[in-house]
Amino acid sequence: MAPQSSPVSTLGEALGGPASVALPVTDPSHVGEARRRANGLGLTAGLSETERGTLAVVVTEAATNLARHASDGLLVLRAAGTPPSGVEILALDKGPGIRDLSKAMSDGFSTAGSAGHGLGAIRRMAGEFDLFSTPETGTALFARVNAAARAADDRLDRGTLGVVCLPVATERASGDAWTVERTARRTLVVLADGLGHGVDAARAAEMAIHTATKRVRHSPAQIIGAAHDAMRATRGAALAIAEIDLSEHRLTFAGIGNVSAVIVSPDGTQSLASHNGIVGHEMRTVHEFTYPWTGASCLIMHSDGIRSRWQLGAYPGLAAHHPALVAGTLYRDFTRGRDDATVLAVRVRET
After folding, report:
1. Rounded distance, CA 107 to CA 130, Å?
2. Residue pair 132/124 in contact by the 8 Å Cβ criterion
3. Domain ranges in the chain?
4. pLDDT tens across 28-58, in order?
């Protein structure tokens, strides 16, 4: 899995994240802006002209579907991979859901006059596709359009990672930052939530991530200790680090502050233990906790911009879908709306 982070930013560069792009889609007039923003991400990801054409159709179909049939429609886009090698699309809504998925997925079932042929066209044209819908909660659609020319650069295992990372509406910089790093048998998942929000929070969170990426072979507790020393000149952050070791079938976790983390498996949900404190300012000894990990496990971590009173069991079957749908659904239904919000969902299996 390729690193999903960047060095600490200088003034003028985008801070925090890597952040997603959120576009409310409640009217057909919003479709054109969604297509333009996606094209910009496609250029960043190295998509060819033909691939950007495919991306335009996929985004047009997804956005038109939201505008015509959904309630509170939201399109979440991100350039995925390091270096970026594809564009991921999440279409989220609180509409009536799709009652007949097989009919909706047929190419003849168009989204009310859009450029292609509805959900069937998205599934056919996207490099990756998944869909989750229930009558009670709405629909979440995931699609990814990949750059063929950068396939060799994209070491991210498909189907492993889902993320939504968005700043509070009043800020450009995200006070949350994250990374997922992988060695031969070990995956490191890091989520930092800078104190407050805005540029200063983003700089604190980025320093935590920068420290982690320089110490990917260290233990979670060692990384937090190093981050504590490195972040004394910042406003500080909550920081959670999970190390997934496939060879030992275990997850080792250390956390300081109010970043939530759980393991979801067929056996139930296991909350991971964090301690009070602010990395960079007030922190006692860091303790590590070890939990079992299997191929059916899914790690979910989120900042406190997401309410913690969710139960994945309220969405029957969602845990088996692409992690992006897990992250998107939790963001849709549990974002507080007044703080930076990040949800990471990670599934790591034997290859």
Report:
1. 16
2. no
3. 21-153, 167-346
4. 999 999 999 999 999 999 999 999 999 999 9
- Do strands 86-93 and 341-346 pair parallel, antiparallel, or not at all (unpaired)? unpaired
Roughly what angle, to the nearest 10 degrees, separates helices 220-230 and 199-213? 130
Kind of pairing between the strands at 186-194 and 176-182: antiparallel
pLDDT tens-digit readout, 274-294: 999 999 999 988 999 999 999
The whole-model pTM stands at 0.91
Strand-pairing partners, residue 256, are 239, 275
> Do 89 and 98 touch, CB atoms closer than 8 A?
no
What is the CATH number assigned to the segment(s) 167-346? 3.60.40.10
Distances (CA, A) of 319 to 67, 155, 160: 27, 24, 12
First to last CA, the chain: 12
Per-residue pLDDT reduced to its tens digit, 288-339? 999 999 989 999 999 999 999 999 999 999 999 999 999 999 999 999 998 9
Hey, what amino acid is at 38? A
Instruction: Name residue 169's beta-bridge partners.
Output: none
Q: Which CATH superfamily is 21-153 part of? A: Histidine kinase-like ATPase, C-terminal domain (3.30.565.10)
* β 161-166/341-346 pair status: antiparallel
DSSP assignment of 126-157 equals: SSEEEEEEETTTEEEEEEEEE-GGGGGG--SP
Same fold, 21-153 and 167-346: no
